[in-house]
Amino acid sequence: MDGPALSPRELLILHQIEAELGSDLELERELRTMRPARLARLRRSLVARPRSVVAVIACCLAVSFGLLGLAVALRAPALLVAVVAAWGTALAVLLALARFTRRARNR
After folding, report:
1. Contact in structure between 80 and 72 (CB atoms under 8 Å)
2. Concatenated DSSP letters for 43-63?
3. What is the pTM assigned to this prediction?
């Protein structure tokens, strides 16, 4: 490194910063594995999407879980089977759509 050495005050500040960063366990784990935490990845993927898409997905999940809870509470097997079948179909369609868009983007 070219240039003058750090002063004692700068060295003290540098050691304090390193000690503070060393006590951050999540940062240490991320740096050790070089993989971001799950919540950080989820946050980044949600921020990268338009708000309308995130809102639609959140509403669909809320309705889906509400219907599932209603089917369980009413003890109606037909309703429960219908909700699970619709949810599975929607999940399969979304996975196929995701694969299609990923392939289209890679071309």
Report:
1. yes
2. HHHHHTS-HHHHHHHHHHHHH
3. 0.43
